[in-house]
């Protein structure tokens, strides 16, 4: 084991339940023996296995259902930050985390969560935290297993060792861009942003109603739109255009301008106030949307995000 003084991020590759328990129960027990906080976000079945293995120590570990935690990458990062802050406020100097990501089955979703794994290295690089991310080799696609060694500085596979394939987050996120949310057909709303956002907000509000979004989700749509448009006005170049499509799941909103784009691949992931944050606007848009992606092409920059019903 490593001395618990700084940030660690490991991928645990396992192919049996015995291997999962055999690696993580002693690791959790060691944390508790050293007076550290411990939390495990994993499947209900794995929670039961860990509880059984920990015995009387199980009550000292916080358990989180995987499906309730891994909903959207930016929200999960914010929730981890809040949880780690709470542990620190309770007097814990170090925290160990089991984070078994629910990668889903869609390629776009798997890309988002793979990017999330890389982003953790930048967001929590100064945090006194050791995160271990279990990867089920029986179930996950080969590509995800290969990417684990690129998104984690350390890999457990029989033995714990440094990954010689690890890639720093800025480079990794640039090489694997977020998948743009799909759209089809003509947008319900398409207009340029003029001197006032009033018409834009009115039209987009109507599109939210047409998409049968709940009132709170329409609010999320309008706030995210406002933040992205403000970012385009501040950092991009006119004209700034807004388009909205109604889909079976809700609404897809697109904001485009003729600027040079978002240069920081971590923009919107880092919490407001961090020296390297891309700004509160993009952070807020990531928190409110169900998916979001940026692209920069010859004609300028496009931000597209989804709000599901």
Describe this structure as you would to a colleague.
- With 309 residues, this protein is of the alpha/beta class.
- The chain has two domains: 8-175, P-loop containing nucleotide triphosphate hydrolases (Rossmann fold, 3-Layer(aba) Sandwich); 189-308, 2-Layer Sandwich (Heat Shock Protein 90), CATH 3.30.565.10.
- Helices cover 41% and strands 23% of the residues.
- The longest helix is centred in the C-terminal third of the chain and has 21 residues, at 215-235.
- The model has no long low-confidence stretch (mean pLDDT 92).
Short description:
The radius of gyration is 21 Å and the shape is elongated. The protein has 10 helices and 12 strands.
Q: Which tags fit this structure?
A:
single chain; 309 residues; alpha/beta; Rossmann fold; Heat Shock Protein 90; 2 domains; seven-stranded mixed beta sheet; five-stranded antiparallel beta sheet; 23% strand
How many strand segments? 12
Shape: elongated
How far apart are the first and last residues' alpha carbons, in Å? Answer: 45 Å
- CATH top level of the largest domain is Alpha Beta
Integer count of domains: 2
Our estimate of the beta-strand percent is 15-25%
The CATH topology assignment of the largest domain is Rossmann fold
Q: What percent of residues adopt helix (DSSP H or I)?
A: 40-55%
User: Strand-and-helix sequence, N→C?
Assistant: EHEHEHHEHEHEEHEHHEEHEE
Biggest sheet: strand arrangement? 3-2-4-5-1-6-7
What's the pLDDT, averaged over the residues? Answer: 92
Q: What's the tally of helices?
A: 10
The largest sheet is: 7 strands, mixed
């Amino acid at each position: 084991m490593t001395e618990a003084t700084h940030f660690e991020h490991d991928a645990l590759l396992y192919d049996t339940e015995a291997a999962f328990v055999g690696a993580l129960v002693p690791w959790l027990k060691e944390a508790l023996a050293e007076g550290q906080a411990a939390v495990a976000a994993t499947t209900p079945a794995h929670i039961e296995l860990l509880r059984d293995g920990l015995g009387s120590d199980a009550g000292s570990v916080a358990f989180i259902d995987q499906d309730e935690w891994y909903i959207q990458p930016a929200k999960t990062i914010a929730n981890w930050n809040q949880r780690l802050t709470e542990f620190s406020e309770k007097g814990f100097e170090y925290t160990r985390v089991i984070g078994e990501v629910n990668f889903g089955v869609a390629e776009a979703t798997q890309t988002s969560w793979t990017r999330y794994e890389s982003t953790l290295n930048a967001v929590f690089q100064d945090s006194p935290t050791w995160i271990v991310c279990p990867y089920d080799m029986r179930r996950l696609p080969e590509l995800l297993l290969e990417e684990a060694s690129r998104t984690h500085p350390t890999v457990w596979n029989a033995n714990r060792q440094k990954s010689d394939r690890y890639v720093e987050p800025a480079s990794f996120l640039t090489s694997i861009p977020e998948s743009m949310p799909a759209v089809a057909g003509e947008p319900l709303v398409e207009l340029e942003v003029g001197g006032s956002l009033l018409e834009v907000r009115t039209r987009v509000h109507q599109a939210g109603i047409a998409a049968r979004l709940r009132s709170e989700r329409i609010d999320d749509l309008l706030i995210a739109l406002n933040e992205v448009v403000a970012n385009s006005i501040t950092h991009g170049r006119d004209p700034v255009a807004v388009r909205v499509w109604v889909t079976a799941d809700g609404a897809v909103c697109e904001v485009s301008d003729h600027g040079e784009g978002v240069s920081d691949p971590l923009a919107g992931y880092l919490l407001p106030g961090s020296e390297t944050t891309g700004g509160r606007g993009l952070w807020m848009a990531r928190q409110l949307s169900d998916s979001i992606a940026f692209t920069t092409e010859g004609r300028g920059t496009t931000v597209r995000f989804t709000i599901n019903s």
